[in-house]
Amino acid sequence: MRALLEAVQARVSGERALRHLAFLTSFHRIQASPDYRRAAEQVAEWLRAWGLHVEWHEFPAREGLTFWHWPSFQCWWAEEGWLDLISPEHRRLADWEAVRLSLVPRSVSWEGEAELVHVPDGTRPEDYEGVDVAGKVVLTRAKLADVVREAAPRGAVAYVYYGMREVPPFGREPRDAVPYTSFWYWNPDVPRATAFAVSPRTGEWLAELCEQARRGEGNPPRVRGRVRARLYDGTLEVVSATIPGQSSEEVLVVSHLCHPTPFANDNTSGVAANLETARVLAELVREGALPPLKRTVRFLWMPEMTGTMAYLAAHQQGLSRLVCGLNLDMVGERQDVTGSVLLLEHPSEAAPGFTAHLVAAIRDAVYTTGTGHARQGAFPLARLAETPFNGGSDHYILSDPTVGTDTPMLIQWPDRFYHTTADTLDKVDPQSLANAAATAATFAAWAATAGRREAEWLAWGMQARWQQRFVREAQALRTAALEGDAGPIPPRARLAFLLDRHLAALDRLRRLAPDLDMSRWRRLARQFAASEMDAFPDESFRVEADGADLVPVRQVPGPVPLSALPEPYAGRWRALSQDEREANTLTTLALYWADGRRTVDEIATCVALETGRAEPELIRQYFELLAEAGKITLRRKG
Description:
The chain is of the alpha/beta class. Helices cover 38% and strands 19% of the residues.
């Protein structure tokens, strides 16, 4: 691994990656749009110039089609879009030509003049009691799709959005940037709408004008605007490039190409790092500086989620050839400016593997560049951390057990400029890009050349890292017990779960060396675990819910996007999920654990052991909802 890393680091250029990044930020890379296609064409042109074999994939962008569970949608583009405040003063609030994101993506054509009415939290019927929105433009900070669902039937003609997603610990900043939100017309029952986006500071000023009018201190503010836009059937594109190996097995490096302009870190940084990864590996292979590749390395640039689903669904027969992967998403941050930490996010414990351990070893070698004042000891000069599975990017599709591609993610998080027009080029660090590319290129080269010797080395590394984690968890459980805050999971059950998942991860190494005898490491792991577990009482643990004998059976690979369910199922999900992001992660994990044999209770138990959250009723209702929507079937055990 160190020899590969040295060869890669000698070629990687963060400045080159930054130049590619800067060029791509000029494209408004909305999924299934002309600018996304132009960006994809540029990526393909660079790759061909570097000698890679490039494949151009086109998938239908139209309503009524799904890629596994993921619905397609129409293409969109705008020719004009502006909104002016005309009373009590004149001010341009939004201008598509100046700030692309000031027109909410997938807005439809509209022209008119209307009163502006403030409905800050307009996602529920009670928010409209005593508020007349008929024929008016609604100013809101709430989730725009939910506001449209309530306000459109009440006659609202357009919307102005000033919400800002809260990113702990930074809150809702920056105050003067335009936030990113978008319409998704997954199905015909979603109302088509026109909306503009303004900064929180501008939105709060407009809200105060509305409030003054309500108090009788002036006339209600009025706006005038025009949008010329179209939705149409077309295509969405995925760029694939390969460096051939000796077998049909593949190692993946992926990065989503979509998102608005400028959005330098999200995710043009991942795109640029992936391009530099591909360039360097192609150069090293061409010059014979790497051992012969046993496996093909495939690089993918695609629309986030949709493109990954479309590509995998079109290549479903080849899923068994995908050995492992790495997702690069937001990897180029200036940490001192964005406040971020470079996170290595592991796949779910439902699909354990070796890849996160490999990436961690490479990452540590890349970033450990500092030394003590007497040159004793070494340490990273960047903020690094590891997290369990959270989802939210393309690794959540690839790591789904029905897809079976062991894929962690590298991401810089949190980012105080996330999903705003303040995500600009000055927030990107060329050294971060170089480090990400070096990590990804070394990972891909190692995984593509690894055999028995390399698998044995990684087995020892996995064992060492797991023992460290196991001891930390055991001590944390002891501390919690002493503080009277043990939680719902008995300590011995949690530790037994960690042992079981480690043994499963070790078995995954046979993808690299099918004849590797894992008995030595399995025996060591059991012996080590026993020495720690003996300190805790042997307690049984099982989560119980109604429908304990129901077995969810998945019919189609890949996760189910709950936000794309048609009504009334989407409405039932909104009512069921109090914290949507947390509920999405818990239910995604539940779907991962659904292997066609486990009951709902057993799945809820696995999710609790993985997350520490026992939510059997949420999980039961989730599976019942999926069954009614036709996404899975439920059968009785036995």
